[in-house]
Amino acid sequence: MATFNKPHPYFNLLILLLPIVLHFNLGKSELELNYYSKSCPKAEEIIEQQVAQLYDEHGNTAISWIRNLFHDCIVKSCDASLLLETRNGIVSEKTSQRSFGMRNFKYINTIKSAVEKECPLTVSCADIVALSASVGAFLLGGPLIEMKTGRRDSNQSYVEDVEALIPNHNDSISLVLDRFQSLGIDAEGVVALLGAHSVGRVHCTNLVDRLYPTIDSTLDPEYAQYLKGRCPTPYPDPKGVSYARNDRETPMILDNFYYKNVLNHKGLLMVDQQLVSDPRTLPFVEKMAADNAYFHQQFSRALLLLSEINPLIDDQGEIRKDCRYVNK
Fold first, then answer.
1. Per-residue b or e along 206-239, where b marks 16 or more CB atoms closer than 10 Å to that residue's CB
2. What is the reported pLDDT for 3?
3. Where does 173-306 sit in CATH, by number?
4. Do 173-306 and 43-165 have the same topology in CATH?
5. What pLDDT, in 10s, does the model give residues 252-276?
6. What CA–CA distance (Å, rounded) separates 199 from 312?
7. Which residue numbers belong to the known binding site for Ca(2+)?
8. Which residues are the signal sequence here (predicted)?
């Protein structure tokens, strides 16, 4: 009669756990390049065309797409929760004070409609947010960033978490670093992401605290007078159009002039200027100010990290038909 060795006491437990192990190792999908190559081969081409056309018509849309990615991903997940409107018990994240100054949301649906026409209920709004940010950065003279796709859309808003999760423009650099590092983005990446302030503008309501009642001592005096000319009252109308640009030299180019400015005490927001007073960030500011290619390299790396924070995948969430509302 054949004899068999007695099985290891943990053998039966291993057999029970094997399906679970296989599920997590083999069944878990991940974001990937060209995710829609079979389900919607023209998806990325359509999004690129739409973003480029909108840029030609409204140049500031490219800046909006980068900011959208930041505001969407840093709150829980890169899941397009930012785009949801207030409706049927959902309160939009756009109602938060942290979303002040954001615009061009209506054009997201322009892009989404073009994609839906080609491939109904296939491409997520979350991927449109990510891909439009990539194309927008490139149109602004920034690096070409290959963005992975495969995200799904949230069916809820996180408005109650927005203020706690999105750093304020007057927060300390320590708080900003801690917040991003909790998401897996290091100090070098934080410095690079703040380089997005190289483009666009800041409403006066966000910077008058540095001008009134007295001028912040860290501001270059000549630059401070320019800012007071742009923002002549300590009580600007939040709904007004008074603003100042971060970068007067190349205000619509994503380049390293931002770092040259902060080194010359011409940082527009408190968080900008603090980059040069903190030993954890100053070396990166100096290196990016001296090397635009290095800035672009680190900006690409950091934006990719940001874009892949806790994405919804597989059967999580949904693919919204309209980016403004959950599916019925």
1. bbbebbeeebeeebeeebbeebbebbeeeebeee
2. 42
3. 1.10.420.10
4. no
5. 999 999 999 999 999 999 999 999 9
6. 30
7. 72, 75, 79, 81, 93, 247, 250, 255
8. 1-27
Tell me which residues of the chain have a pLDDT lower than 50.
Answer: 1-28
Residue ranges of the binding site for substrate: 167
The domains of the chain are located at: 43-165, 173-306
Catalytic site residue from 8, 58, 71, 203: 71
CA 262 to chain centre: 22
* pLDDT at residue 125, rounded to an integer: 98
pLDDT for residue 240: 74
Q: What is the largest CA-CA distance in the chain?
A: 99
Helical ranges in 89-240 per DSSP H: 106-118, 125-139, 159-165, 173-181, 187-194, 221-230
Q: Which pTM was predicted? A: 0.89
Instruction: Supply the pLDDT for residue 14.
Output: 38
Condensed to tens digits (0 to 9), the pLDDT of residues 87-136 reads: 999 999 999 999 988 999 999 999 999 999 999 999 999 999 999 999 99
Q: Which CATH architecture has domain 43-165?
A: Orthogonal Bundle (1.10)
C-beta of residue 158 within 8 angstroms of C-beta of residue 73: no
CA-nearest of 323, 311, 307, 316 to 121 is 323
What's the pLDDT score for residue 170? 83
In this prediction, residue 19 carries a pLDDT of 42
For residue 254, which of 206, 208, 193, 163 has the smallest C-alpha distance?
Answer: 193
Q: Is 8 a catalytic residue?
A: no
DSSP secondary structure of 69-93 = HHHHHTTT-SSSGGGPPSBTTB--G
Report the phi/psi class of residue 316: left, alpha or beta, with left for phi > 0 and alpha for psi in -120 to 50: beta
- Cβ neighbors of 113 (< 8 A, separation 6 or more) are none
Which residue's entry shows tokens 């963005």?
Answer: 147
Residue type for position 303: L
- Binding residue positions: 72, 75, 79, 81, 93, 167, 197, 247, 250, 255
Instruction: Check residue 12 and give its pLDDT.
Output: 46
